[in-house]
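Aim 2 progress update. The chain analyzed this quarter is reproduced below.
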Amino acid sequence: MTKSSLTPSATSATDPDWSHSRETVRILNLLAAHIEVSMQDGDDSVAALTDSFTSMMGHMKAIEECIGEMPATQHKTILQQHTLEVSSKVQNAIIAFQFYDKLTQRLSHASHSLTSLSGLVSHPDNLFSPFEWQELHKKIKSSYTIDADRKMFDLMLSDLDVEEALESTREAGNDDNIELF
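Predicted structure tokens:
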């Protein structure tokens, strides 16, 4: 889309420059940009946390090795319990990061889908072409890496409303495994 096609327009239906397609494209692009900025902000924070927790796990292993060399005492037992508890908490944090990764994958797909939809809507010839819409559907569905997302896509295209599709996806359970370290 050229810069001139994105010039501000009045939202009045009586304005000859006003176009629902152009307004739709602007909103779709705005939503895609918000998603991208949010993901970038989150990625920076999560990367720092991931580095910290990875480092903590390394230090916990070194502490566990030192404790392993200590003679058997009540203090050794207490230290072992505490290191196990801290290691468990770090492991839970790492699993939470994996769920965050899944979230960012979904947001990335949403952003790219909005951009693709924007591209289709911005061309009047494509807007009314069933072939172009089918190609958009194929492109969006093929980008999904999570089975639940493909199922949600199919449900939404079968004219279920959002709540029904969400409920159906929840009832099916979450088969997407999270890799444990």
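Residues 58 and 150 are 38 Å apart (CA to CA). The longest helix spans residues 20-68. These observations will guide the mutagenesis experiments scheduled for the next reporting period.
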